[in-house]
């Protein structure tokens, strides 16, 4: 009969338990809203990239706004975010191989990595002039030397893949936007159309007469070094056939700003504002202007050639093939 | 005299009084009905947006404080889309201008918040020799020459506040947004006037699409005549079906009269209290009318049975029916009213108003059905004739015999086991129920409705039509000019944009870098904040000096202490909103040393977030308290706590099945569905009261258990079967409504009626036999019945 007793006890207690439970639930249970978590994408719509490097087949390294460094090892299919430990805008990257690279940016930022970007270190022993200044471009030469240019006449150089830094520029109120280096010849391109050249690795500099007064944003040597091309605001393209000692303007076919130029496949390519891509044959005399994609008006600040493709950094991160087909990385 | 007998005595005197003074009773009811009818016809049917806002929620306070400048919840977006080429053609641009100008004359419009390519405040910023030149993009006139159009196109492409926001990225569409003063919003007028403007520019290869809350509620209003027609068709179907099954005019007209009287009283009372009716709540009206009808049908059937059993005349039969059914009827009414009034605890005005109207409405059934029907029945002259020859009684009888068979054989265990399985399974599945909207687009309208198609098209071309603003506050005046504050805002925007449903964000942190780039020769490497507060101040000063006062107000307050980050959403699903809100908090937590504070939230999404949070927090409370009300009602009525437990069974089942069904159909719990769900929950038990009470009455008269069940199912059970079948058939008509919400609620109603009928015809009798609850059995009879049952069960 114990079963019966338990049953009776249970049926006597249960109503009170239920009422108590309901009261408790009614008064005390207040579910809080829980949102889903979002995995941040490596490449976001708000990103802007200022520099891109292709040190090896399939390896794309790009840097940009807010201290962002991204890398892909499979030609842009998968991307990884790398820890930069800064939120300064990063303006440019150069890499010797898949392991060693230097990045420069705002506030005198110079970062170096020797392990493929798994870790980045701030460069030590930077010249005092660089402190707080905006560095705009970093370029390397094959022998392990590296050059950086920026605001207020800043020109830095380092040997040993960025081990020891020196200032090789003059203190002045004019910024340099790009530098082209080939053996001991260096060409600086900057504000107000200014061009400066050194034939001895930066010990001595000569100002070169420029055909324009508007700012130049990019300068590059051809693969064989016989030609140099500079590009700038308002569609300016300058050409030098004598190692940068004299320059003349070439018609680009556009009035839009051009921000970067590179030699490519025995020819030339340049990018700029409003989704423009310019190409020229080896002599750089005639430029063909095309839009990267219909109704694409994104700006691009850097261009890097690798194998048959051009890699662009800007409001989008993308690649263009020989057939002009655009691949925008996501 | 024990309490029960005393109670019976009082009830008997009351019934006696009502029937004896029937002329007086009917006259009083008629008089009140006439008075209420005068009031009821003047009740307003409209949507008031403020009603959706839980006023004390912190989000709403932020919304109210800042909506004037940062954007309210009544934003309407109009998209002009070209079929070929792009919008940069004088003809198309003129249309954009026309819409922008015409919008100024709409009632209640906030003229400072009409924004488009053609608005005066859409500015072009250019570097010039003197410094910086700011002028309207396309105001006051539209460019005509190809050259000027090309210039405009270039200016648009350069302007991040226009390009992507007011001109689509592919240049094939232009957007015009307009906001309204909340207090002056009249949805029907806005809908008509904007519709007229939209039609005036449609054609010549331009398609016009319009979304926004005013348009949504405008569409609901637009379908109001259709809703009325469906209501009338449903009533007509009801009359036909009742007439068909009952075969008498009394069985048809009295239930209908009960519904009408209830409705008139409730609407009149609502008008007296100064309340209005939301068009979407019409479903609640029908739901309550359905219960009035159910109660009345029970009375008519009981009356018929009394006559069949040999009641001497109509008066005696009416008295007997009223006496027998008064208790279960009142219990049903009070329990329903209790479930409904609990909704008042949810601090959203719309829900509170519905709760009040609903409670009054349900309560009126106590008079309109429980009193009026039997009193009128007492007048019936020739109670034994039928109005038409078709007799479906044999079919009903056959069905009811099957139900009796279930309760009186071992099949009852199968029913109970199946119910348990169903309960557990639906209970588990019910956890998928979402608070807020479950699907993109508006759940109120069908997926292929014009409105939802327009919304999808706009969300595809632009960043998203639904907005939320988050207020970013610095420590003091000018504190938002600090680069760190601006950088935090920009980082916050980037963080929020990672959510896939977020199409984009905009804030003053977007203005500064663009201005700086322009100042630096258009070089994107200078698209960044100024180095210090002073430089940012100068940049912002340049921007504001070139514009009209107030142009920057939609981004920041004049003291640069409070600014908005506006987030554009591609949908307003509950999940999307919850994720966004929790991400705002996540960002704040990840940046403990942030120089700015983030305050949630304004705009439509902010308001919905608040409403959803309230509904979620109050959901458990509402259900628990509604159940508690039910338990107390039953416990008091039968003087037994066990009775409360017993009647919880069908209610819980109805609950879990409802929520599971809603989850399965993708119907979210929101301000519109909550009151209906609350009311529907109570519906699960109505029929059970009649069936169980009659079993109890029979047992108390000395009938055997199985005999009692048989009698109860054949009488009360017949009423259940008739009303359930009739009502389910009628509500199916709702499925053809142009308003998806009404169609879905129609299906929900059908589901409730079915569960209620099935549980009272199959489950409750089985439970009575198996559990033998003491309150059903007469003292001392239980033992006897028990042995009788065991004999059958073990045989």
TrEMBL record, chain A:
It comes from the Bacteria. InterPro entries: WD40/YVTN_repeat-like_dom_sf (IPR015943). PANTHER family: PHOTOSYSTEM II STABILITY/ASSEMBLY FACTOR HCF136, CHLOROPLASTIC, PHOTOSYSTEM II STABILITY_ASSEMBLY FACTOR HCF136, CHLOROPLASTIC. This is Uncharacterized protein. It comes from Thiobacillus denitrificans. The lineage of its organism: Bacteria, Pseudomonadati, Pseudomonadota, Betaproteobacteria, Nitrosomonadales.
UniProtKB/TrEMBL annotation, chain B:
Keywords: Cell membrane, Membrane, Transmembrane, Transmembrane helix. Its main location: membrane. The chain crosses the membrane at residues 23-43, 228-246, 253-274, 280-303, 324-348, 354-377, 411-431, 622-638, 713-737, 749-771. The keyword Transcription does not apply. Gene3D superfamilies: Multidrug efflux transporter AcrB transmembrane domain (1.20.1640.10). Residues 62-378, 458-774 form the Membrane transport protein MMPL domain. Pfam families: MMPL. It is found in: Cell membrane. GO terms for cellular component: plasma membrane. Signal peptide: none annotated. InterPro entries: MMPL_dom, Mycobact_MmpL. It is a multi-pass membrane protein. This is RND transporter.
């Amino acid at each position: 009969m114990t079963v019966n007793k338990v049953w009776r006890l249970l049926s006597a207690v249960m109503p009170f338990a239920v009422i108590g439970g309901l009261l408790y639930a009614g008064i005390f249970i207040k579910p809080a809203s829980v949102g889903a978590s979002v995995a941040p994408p490596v490449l976001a719509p708000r990103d802007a990239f200022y520099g891109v490097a292709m040190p090896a087949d399939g390896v794309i390294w790009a840097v940009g706004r807010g201290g962002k460094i991204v890398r892909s090892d499979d030609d842009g299919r998968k991307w990884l975010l790398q820890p930069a430990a800064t939120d300064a805008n990063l303006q440019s990257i150069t890499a010797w191989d898949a392991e060693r690279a230097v990045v420069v940016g705002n506030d005198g930022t110079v970062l170096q990595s020797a392990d493929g970007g798994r870790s980045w270190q701030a460069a030590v022993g930077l010249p005092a002039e660089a402190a707080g200044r905006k560095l705009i471009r970093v370029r390397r030469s094959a022998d392990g030397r590296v050059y950086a240019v920026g605001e207020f006449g800043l020109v830095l150089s380092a040997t040993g893949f960025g081990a020891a830094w020196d200032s090789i520029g003059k203190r002045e109120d004019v910024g340099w936007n790009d530098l082209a280096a080939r053996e001991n010849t260096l060409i600086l391109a900057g504000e107000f159309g200014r061009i400066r050249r050194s034939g001895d690795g930066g010990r001595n500099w000569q100002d070169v007469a420029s055909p324009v007064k508007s700012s130049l944003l990019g300068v590059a040597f051809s693969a064989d070094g016989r030609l140099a091309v500079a590009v700038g605001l308002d569609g300016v393209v300058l050409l030098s056939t004598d190692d940068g000692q004299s320059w003349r303007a070439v018609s680009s076919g556009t009035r839009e700003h051009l921000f970067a130029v590179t030699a490519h496949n025995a020819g030339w390519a340049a990018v700029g504002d409003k989704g423009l891509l310019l190409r020229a044959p080896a002599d750089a005399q005639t430029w063909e202007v095309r839009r990267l994609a219909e109704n694409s008006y994104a700006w691009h600040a850097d261009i890097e050639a690798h194998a048959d493709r051009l890699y662009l950094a800007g409001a989008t991160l993308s690649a263009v093939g020989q057939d002009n087909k655009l691949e925008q990385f996501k | 005299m024990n309490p029960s007998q005393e109670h019976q005595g009082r009830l008997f005197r009351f019934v006696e009084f009502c029937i004896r003074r029937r002329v007086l009773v009917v006259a009083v009811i008629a008089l009140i009905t006439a008075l209420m009818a005068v009031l009821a016809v003047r009740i307003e049917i409209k949507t008031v947006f403020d009603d959706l806002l839980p006023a004390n929620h912190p989000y709403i306070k932020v919304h109210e404080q800042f909506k004037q400048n940062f954007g309210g919840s009544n934003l309407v977006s109009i998209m002009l889309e070209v079929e070929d080429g792009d919008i940069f053609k004088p003809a198309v641009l003129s249309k954009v201008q026309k819409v922008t100008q015409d919008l100024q004359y709409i009632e209640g419009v906030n003229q400072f918040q009409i924004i488009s390519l053609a608005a005066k405040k859409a500015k072009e910023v250019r570097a010039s020799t003197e410094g910086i030149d700011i002028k309207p993009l396309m105001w006051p006139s539209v460019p005509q020459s190809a050259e000027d159009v090309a210039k405009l196109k270039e200016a648009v492409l350069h302007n991040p506040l226009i390009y992507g926001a007011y001109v689509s990225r592919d240049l094939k569409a232009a957007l015009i947004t307009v906001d309204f003063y909340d207090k002056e919003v009249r949805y029907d007028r806005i809908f008509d006037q904007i519709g007229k403007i939209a039609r005036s520019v449609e054609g010549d290869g331009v398609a016009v699409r319009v979304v926004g809350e005013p348009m949504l509620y405008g569409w609901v209003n637009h379908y109001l005549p259709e809703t009325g027609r469906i209501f009338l068709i449903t009533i007509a179907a009801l009359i036909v079906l009742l007439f068909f099954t009952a075969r008498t005019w009394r069985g048809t007209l009295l239930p209908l009269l009960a519904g009408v009287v209830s409705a008139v009283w409730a609407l009149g009372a609502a008008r007296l209290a100064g309340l209005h009716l939301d068009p979407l709540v019409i479903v609640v009206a029908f739901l309550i009318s359905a219960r009035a009808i159910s109660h009345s049908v029970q009375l008519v059937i009981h009356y018929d049975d009394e006559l069949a059993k040999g009641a001497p005349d109509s008066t005696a039969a009416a008295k007997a029916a009223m006496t027998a059914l008064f208790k279960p009827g009142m219990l049903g009414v009070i329990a329903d009213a209790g479930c409904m009034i609990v909704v008042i605890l949810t601090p959203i005005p719309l829900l509170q108003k519905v709760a009040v109207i609903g409670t009054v409405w349900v309560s009126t059934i106590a008079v309109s059905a429980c009193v009026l029907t039997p009193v009128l029945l007492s007048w019936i002259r020739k109670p034994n004739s039928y109005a038409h020859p078709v007799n479906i009684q044999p079919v009903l009888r056959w069905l009811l015999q099957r139900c009796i068979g279930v309760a009186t054989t071992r099949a009852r265990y199968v029913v109970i086991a199946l119910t348990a399985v169903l309960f557990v399974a639906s209970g588990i599945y019910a956890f998928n129920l979402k608070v807020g909207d479950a699907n993109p687009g508006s759940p109120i309208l069908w997926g292929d409705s014009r409105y939802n198609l327009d919304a999808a098209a706009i969300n595809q071309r632009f960043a998203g039509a639904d907005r939320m603003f988050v207020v970013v506050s610095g420590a003091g005046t000018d504190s938002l000019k600090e680069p760190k504050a601006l950088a935090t805002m920009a980082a916050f925007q980037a963080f929020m944009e990672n959510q896939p449903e977020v199409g984009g964000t905009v804030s003053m942190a977007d203005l500064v870098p663009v201005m700086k780039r322009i100042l630096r020769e258009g070089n994107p490497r200078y698209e960044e904040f100024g180095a210090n507060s002073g430089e940012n101040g100068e940049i912002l000063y340049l921007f504001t000096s070139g514009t009209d006062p107030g142009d920057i107000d939609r981004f920041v307050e004049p003291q640069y202490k409070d600014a908005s980050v506006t987030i554009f959403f591609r949908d307003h699903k509950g999940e999307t909103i919850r994720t966004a809100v929790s991400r705002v908090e996540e960002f704040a937590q990840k940046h403990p040393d942030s120089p700015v504070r983030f305050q949630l939230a304004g705009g439509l999404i902010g308001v919905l977030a608040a409403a959803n949070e309230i509904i979620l927090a109050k959901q458990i409370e509402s259900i628990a308290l509604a159940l508690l009300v039910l338990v107390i009602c039953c416990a008091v009525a039968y003087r037994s706590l066990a009775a409360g437990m017993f009647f919880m069974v069908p209610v819980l089942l109805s609950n879990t099945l409802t929520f599971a069904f809603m989850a399965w159909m993708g119907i979210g719990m929101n301000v519109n569905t909550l009151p209906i769900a609350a009311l529907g929950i109570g519906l699960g038990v109505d029929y059970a009261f009649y069936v169980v009470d009659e079993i109890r009455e029979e047992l108390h008269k000395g009938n055997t258990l199985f005999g009692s069940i048989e009698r109860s199912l054949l009488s009360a059970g017949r009423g259940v079967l008739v009303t359930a079948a009739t009502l389910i058939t009628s509500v199916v008509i709702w499925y053809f409504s142009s308003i998806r919400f009404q169609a879905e609620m129609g299906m929900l109603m059908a589901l409730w009626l079915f569960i209620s009928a099935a549980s009272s015809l199959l489950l409750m009798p089985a439970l009575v036999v198996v559990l033998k609850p003491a309150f059903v059995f007469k003292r001392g009879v239980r033992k006897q019945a028990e042995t009788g049952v065991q004999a059958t069960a073990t045989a």
